[in-house]
Write a structure and sequence with these properties.
heterotetramer; A: 486 residues; alpha/beta; Aspartate Aminotransferase, domain 2; Aspartate Aminotransferase, domain 1; 15 helices; 13 strands; globular; B: 452 residues; 2 domains; 4-stranded antiparallel sheet; 13 helices; binds pyridoxal-5'-phosphate
Chain lengths: 486, 452, 486, 452
């Protein structure tokens, strides 16, 4: 049932109806008649507080989540979101702080943000950090816009191409376009590394930069990264690091040391701020010396013992402002708290155990007969299984497995990404899962394989235990029904 | 080892299964030269108790004042139920609802949200959110450029009364795509843009016109006339609105003869705490005609194998993960959790509750402005009505006044000299429904003192 | 799965392991060797924080609750528990206040408790209130002990009997025994009122008091209450009011005005503090002038503008202390906040709408063919349906209906209480439920009736949709399994 | 109309269905003379926003000090996850799990709790909670009287080192059943009761002996010897323990040759905030032999129709709702939600985390006591070890010292002169793991000043 179906016109709004001052607000409404709303507000339901609480509590129960299920969604880093981060980021004073509050009334918050910048510099090996981008994609935008600003400032305006591997996350090419670039795609080799020869072909005077993630979205570490960096730099291009996920490298290797000029980081992955059913995130960027002048504003600066926002005056060549205020503060707070709890040693361990879990899960699945996309390679924080054979033999497609896993109380891995690997499952267990849960997942995969061999329909028609059976996506797109009307 | 559950013996078993001797060996594909030793600038781990004390201390330093700043972020009452439900693990720690069958909670909620927002703005459809108000305006401009096929100019008119940070953001985001944002001056009398200021562009190829209602000063624009002017001129109309104000004023879908084409703005006043500027969310609604140009996720209602109603992400071919370089935007992660809160907020407040918040915010602000205008040398900058902000001219430098009032525990407002120096010593104040008569009087007296 | 089945020895305890001072706590442990624990702590599971969060989040989802279901459990008053009461009662300063903190550091809390006492006096018509009892039953204990202290103080020590109606809640007789009294039971008449003639027979010089609730647990108002009061008072006995539930009378009629000498109130019913899966509650007592000296301590007193606890010194004849400190403070805070939100007018409305809902539900069920226990009477906040006939004709017992309702997503009413009405359902909808939910419940009852007529097994074997099917209570009691061992 | 959802037209429909004209008519069975008009002493309704501001203000008045009071309620770290999960609607707003099939969450959790507590105390079984520590002791005494069939005296020995409020409460609750509580003096040297003090009762019919470990002063009793003495004397042994201390010290189930018969105490140190004294919970464990004498709810594991494991309340024939006047107690509502928190707390802290809390509390308290005993005139009242409380003798009236330290933002401890005037100017202090070295030093300096 929809909330609107609980609504009854005329329902009192209860304890939320604010008594307020004695003034007659109707009489004192100074808004000119002609500007007043005439149409009804009936899209806002009139329900009791209990009805709303009950409705949304029940709705929540229909979701899978990290707090209820193992969620090995590759590239998404579904790790435990510590509850302390939530309660501390929601301390009343933090929630009540106005973004434009005077700086001398904001030192607690600004100090925290400054320290977060410093920690992110350290883990990435970068020289500057701006926290303002509100998600990975906006971080990418910031980074590529900075590359562009750099070339523009040098009058190097022939450069109109951004190179992306075919395995790149969709936000990479989409971002390049938003920054006014053309996208040049390069293939991935059989071993998961970028095709270096193909890259050589396309790098040249038109190259503004290359967007890479390393380990790549194939779940393997790009071994020739130093050569790639040299190649691109020699041609006058810059290197962008898609750091959506640092889980595989935290404390092991740093994008700055690999030669990257700019990076965005999804704090909502590596640094464990919750995904919230789709967001919010935070896509902080880090950059090398030469890109410092172009960072998006504001950035937190420190002078003596006090902190203030650096703005256009301080960074006159900035690519500008990307959010109304200064990004997703509440998300940044959560990431900061998490990082302080990890501490120096904990940071290393994230990569170590994310990698241990991924490699263990990979070999266990391989031992049970599943085919790996890159069998010769180490897994990074994630790895890819291809169901090419199973799909052909028993209709056990990646989608079917994904749905059937739900019946076994496991969230599905990422499916059909990266695009060039058929029937693939991109599997990322993260470091916060225990061995028993990995073993449980392997057992479930083996069960599904047996089911498919025995009775393919059982698998292709899944799920059976969810609030709905398989949904008709085609109908959804063809007969658009995007809003309710009574 | 915070958050890592492995016991030594499990580690051994796992290494054995993999066939390596140490965890370190798992990193053997990384060139030796690149491997780092220690992150020496990272402080040592704090346990939860320590970090709690640290953060409580920091929070305390920033708290305690009575806030009269608005300027795009508004302090409103939020029912306690809203965030208690929103932070339930199943909403809080879920991913984007790609596996629809295991995400019906989030999906149905977004469908309900879309319905509420489309109704509030009187537009046909809504997406599932963008980052915030400013970046939503940028996306709306990009969308208008895609959507107005007849226009070639990529020129967009933006009144000077549009929130300056929105204008900055829109500029930063669209400039690389050869889009030109042209500033239309506002009147120093009314604080709004006169129709005549638009007439200067009559007959020109203008792709779109942006109108913020109420505008940054809280003043009202002539939305009907400007909308009709724009449509007559072949331009699309982008309405930027405080959604709470829409409980009182004409929604963008009803501006002029045909309504705005795109409505966007910041959803913050509908259930998001001030929280240092975020996370808020950008809402975006549009006409049915433009739906395929919309950026961001959209949820549709459909049926399952057995004909039962269900919800799923739809029109994904607009999005980067499918269409890559041809997507309507690069946006992926949005502000889902804040939308969750906002939807619950609207349901709990109801139309009467929301309207009451808007009315009281309007009444409080006007009453406070009236009261302080009795102080010598304090006057309204603009003529005409405003919503819940008022620009005041002060007889003393604004920064000094703000400082003096802060010493009395009051955040006096936004210093307009930062972006509108032409207005002289002007301050923008806002008194929402959270302020009592006592608070208003306290403000007035503090201001009197600060000016004395 | 039990939490213990997730446990693995040696699991690190993570961010909750407190670093603490530099001192070597092992070396500085001054506890004599002979007193140290030698046995293991393996009943405390070693699980990761994520495992614990996931386990208990999932467990919670197995429960019915007011936040998820209509819960018409008679005598239990499952009304909406406002979320604001929870968040305000859990403000950090309230949670951090030590019960023995100096009074000048406690004025905010004490003022609140004082005002709560005053409001409870007003709604009950009593002269004094003590907030210390921790649940209804302890309130009853306090009240009956006060009656005893009163008689004792007067040397009136022949009085050894407490009279209870057969319909009384089990805590009434159990309490009388705890206070050293004998229980004399009197029958209820066909119309739900106490059998006045039978009462006359037993009232006498041995009567210490009578425990009544009005409206009674039969869901009807005891009409001859004034006569009963006179009768008992004339015989030298006192009147105890079981005010577990004031939902039917709030702002309509007051126990003090009816002639009662002492009352306990379940703040966790009438005043909407949550039931928490079994508790905690708060069983504040109110009393008339003559019982004031005997109230349990501490009570909050006011002197000029400051508040302090009144203790043994102030109330030398007190029955004493019933809790370590001063009762369930957090529950009392919630009740106070709720009462302030209700306010003067809201109090009346609780009774009005609780009564409206109960009467509406009663007539609607009767119209559909269900038999009422007291068809001639008005419902109070609750009423009773008897399934005597249905149980005989189609095995549709009260228990079977209760279980089958779960399948229809409604919590069961109270069953088999009061004891003297066969196959009874005691139904209490409360004022916070909307008409649509009452109508839904009626429809479910009608469905079950039809099912039982068609296929009795379908109903007697219910539930089918819960985490478990009907449980074997006999086995539970015979083969006691009260703790897990690996 | 807060919390009442009815619209005027629904009210009319409902009245129509009932066949009355007004809601008032529904009260027509109440004698006219008894009906009241208005509750004039109840203030007018506050909306949620107003009441929030009111309560925030009151809370603020009581906050801010550094707390060194223990005396039965201890400030410990509680992981944030604990109460976030505990206050989920499904735990928070459920009733007692009478309908087992719809309450498996609560029931399984209690079964886990029983397991944890039985293990911690080294007893066979546990119930599902009583109200708090003091009332649990009262119930334990009643239970011992029922359980010790050989004894007729109803006489129970209670050392003077048992928490005075526990003794008060036990007295208030058991006195009406002709039970006599006999105080066994404590030694002013050791702060514990010497075995010789018990020997005075050798050969007498004593139903039970109460031992608190550690006792109110934080000192340790000779539990093994006293337990054996009691058992040899035909008395049952009731152990009252701080459950957190049991991570370090011998649990009651292992006292002497055969262990205590009943263990009880306050569960507060295991996840309940100080919260002005409640809600906490009383735990109670006992030997298998006594299980049918136990008061309160008990959960058992069983199977369903299909043989699947499930949980249900069991042995209900002990309880008032079944057995009425023959019940083991009148208790009905218990402290379920706090038990929920406590169970989650124990699971998250784990044995290492809990042990660490206990060790640090011990170490901090001892270090602080050592430090302040360097101040002139300050000395320990008792010889021998203590857990995380220390009784100090001061060279100045305690009340004055407490006052002076409060002015410096420190709650110095419990004033022992209130109940133990024979000890002179004695103060009981407690420094749990929540106190840093800085905090201890701050305390010491404040005390120095207060005494100067
Ligand atoms: C590799 C990669 N790059 C970029 C992104 C985009 O990040 P966001 O969703 O925060 O915009 C993601 C996340 O989905 C990703 O996995
Ligand atoms: C009528 C009646 N009296 C007394 C009680 C006992 O209250 P409590 O459970 O709070 O001890 C109850 C609650 O179950 C009740 O309904």
């Amino acid at each position: 049932m929809l909330i609107f179906e609980h609504a009854v016109e005329g329902r009192p709004s209860g304890a939320q109806y604010i008594n307020g001052s004695q003034r007659d607000t109707q009489a004192e409404n100074r808004i000119p008649e002609a500007l007043r709303r005439r149409s009804s507000l009936n899209s806002i339901p009139e329900v009791s507080e209990l009805q709303a609480v009950r409705h949304y509590t029940r709705l929540s129960q229909l979701n899978f989540s990290i707090d209820t299920q193992f969620y090995p969604l590759g590239s998404c880093t579904m790790k435990y979101n510590p509850r302390a981060c939530n309660s501390l980021a929601m301390l009343p004073e933090f929630l009540g702080r106005h973004p434009l509050a005077p700086e001398r009334h904001s030192q607690g918050y600004l100090e925290t943000m400054y320290e977060l910048q410093e920690m992110l510099k350290e883990v990435t090996g970068m020289r500057g950090v701006s926290l303002t981008p509100m998600a990975g994609a906006q971080g990418e935008f910031a980074g590529v816009a900075m590359i562009r600003a750099y070339h523009d400032a040098r009058g190097d305006d022939e450069r109109c191409e951004i190179i992306c591997p075919d395995a790149a996350h969709g936000t990479n090419p989409a971002t390049a376009i938003m920054c006014g670039y053309k996208v040049v795609e390069i293939p991935t080799k059989k071993d998961g590394d970028v095709d270096f020869e193909a890259l050589k072909e396309v790098v040249g005077p038109k190259t503004a930069g290359i967007m890479l993630t390393n380990p790549s979205t194939c779940g393997v570490f790009e071994r020739r990264i130093k050569e790639i960096a040299e190649l691109v730099h020699d041609a006058g291009g810059l290197l962008y690091y898609d750091g959506a996920n640092l889980n595989a490298i935290l404390g092991k290797v740093r994008p700055g040391d690999m030669g990257f000029d700019v990076i965005h980081m999804n704090l909502h992955k590596t640094f464990s701020t919750p995904h919230g059913g789709g967001g919010p995130g935070a896509g902080a960027i880090g950059c090398s010396e030469r890109l410092l002048p172009y960072m998006p504003i504001p950035v937190v600066g420190k002078e003596a013992d006090s902190y203030r926002y650096l703005d256009q005056q301080d960074l006159p060549e900035t690519i500008g402002r990307l959010s109304t205020f200064a990004g997703n503060a509440g998300v940044l707070l959560r990431a900061y708290i998490y990082m302080r709890m990890l501490g120096r040693v904990g940071m290393h361990r994230v990569a170590e155990f994310a990698t241990l879990n991924a490699n263990y899960l990979m070999v266990e699945l391989e031992k049970r007969g599943f085919e790996l996309a890159f069998p010769e390679r180490r897994a990074s924080h994630e790895f890819i299984v291809t169901l090419k054979r199973e799909a052909k033999d028993y209709q056990m497609s990646a989608k079917a497995v994904a749905k059937r896993l739900l019946d076994k109380n496991y969230h599905a891995p990422t499916i059909y990404f990266p695009l060039h690997i058929p029937e693939c499952l991109l599997i990322e267990p993260t470091e916060t899962e225990a061995k028993e849960d990995l073993d449980g997942f392997v057992a479930a995969m083996v069960e599904i394989l047996e089911e498919a061999q025995r009775d393919p329909d059982l698998v292709t028609q899944a799920p059976y235990t969810q609030p709905v059976r398989q949904l008709d996506d085609v109908k959804a797109a063809r007969q658009l029904d995007l809003t309710y009307s009574a | 080892m915070p958050f890592i559950p492995h016991t030594p013996s499990e580690i051994d078993q796992m290494l054995g299964a993999i066939g390596v001797d140490s965890i370190d060996q798992l990193f053997d594909e990384i060139p030796e030269a690149l491997r780092i030793g220690e992150l020496s600038a990272i402080p040592e781990s704090m346990d939860e108790m320590e970090v709690s004390r640290l953060m409580q201390g920091r929070a305390r330093r920033d708290g305690g004042a009575l806030n009269f700043i608005g300027a795009g972020a508004y302090e409103h009452h939020i029912p306690a139920a809203v965030w208690q439900i929103t932070t339930r693990g199943e909403f809080y720690s879920a991913y984007t609802p790609y596996q629809a069958e295991a995400s019906q909670g989030t999906l149905q909620l977004i469908y309900e949200y879309q319905t509420m927002m489309a109704g509030l703005t009187a537009m046909d459809v809504s997406n599932a959110s963008l980052y915030d108000g400013a970046s939503a305006l940028a996306e709306a401009i990009l969308m208008a450029v895609r959507g107005n096929r007849k226009s070639k100019s990529r020129k967009v008119l933006v009144p000077g009364g549009v929130h300056p940070y929105y204008r900055d953001t829109a500029y930063a985001i669209v400039k690389n795509q050869n889009i030109e944002l042209v500033e239309v001056p506002y009147s120093e009398v009314s604080g709004a843009s006169e129709l005549s200021a638009f007439d200067a562009y009559a007959g020109e190829d203008i792709t779109a016109v942006v109108i913020q209602q109420p505008n940054f000063f809280g003043q009202f624009e002539a939305v009907d006339a400007i909308t009709d002017w724009a449509h007559n001129n072949g331009s699309l109309v982008i309405g930027v609105c405080n959604p709470l104000a829409l409980t009182l004023i004409t929604p963008p879908g009803e501006w002029g003869q045909n309504g705005a084409d795109i409505a966007c703005g910041d959803g913050q006043p509908l259930g998001a705490p001030l929280s240092s500027g975020g996370p808020y969310y950008g809402y975006m609604c549009c006409t049915q005609k433009l739906v395929r140009q919309m950026p961001g996720r959209i949820v549709g209602r459909t049926v399952d194998l057995e004909g039962k109603q269900g919800f799923a992400l739809t029109l994904q071919a607009r999005e980067q993960h499918i269409r890559r370089s041809k997507a309507t935007s690069n946006i992926c992660t949005n502000q889902g959790l804040v939308v969750t809160a906002s939807t619950i907020h609207m349901a709990i407040m109801g139309p009467k509750g929301l309207t009451r918040q808007a009315e009281l915010s309007h009444a409080n602000t006007q009453a406070l402005a009236d009261r302080v205008c009795q102080i010598d040398g304090v006057e309204r900058v603009f003529e005409g009505a405003s919503f819940h902000e008022v620009a005041l001219r002060l007889p003393k430098p604004v920064a000094e006044v703000i400082d003096a009032m802060e010493d009395q525990g009051i955040l006096a407002g936004y210093d307009l000299t930062q972006r509108y120096s032409e207005l002289g010593d002007a301050l923008l104040l806002c008194a929402t429904e959270t302020k009592t008569d006592d608070d208003l009087e306290q403000y007035a007296q503090a201001l009197e003192q600060a000016l004395a």
